[in-house]
Amino acid sequence: MEIVAKRDLLKDRYGNYYIVSYASKKALTIVNAAMYHAFNQILDEELVAKVKAKYPNDVACGKYFADLVHEQVEQMSSPGHPGKIYDIEEAKKEYDLHMKPLYDDSFHLS
Hints:
It is a single chain. By secondary structure, the protein is of the alpha/beta class. It has one domain. The chain is 35% helix and 21% strand. It is built from four helices and five strands; from the N terminus they run βββαααβαβ. 17% of the residues are buried. The mean pLDDT is 88.
């Protein structure tokens, strides 16, 4: 199992997805995928225009970012798309996992 940062996802038994923000040979730093997307976009007119173009009615901010994860999962499930989705329990057998908490102030644009 070779997990690649900023490409592969982990999925837990509850159906939550995590993106690998950092990977070494023995450890992974992971963050909730919707939060990762939310903290890597600037709240500006361009983002507002993207959201308004995607949804006919007003939506909560989190809906847009959760849908980004859903779209990413669909793309990764198609043949020929780079990246894999790994079961988090399987990943724990080969890597030490470090989960970034949702309230961490170290999130930043990459």
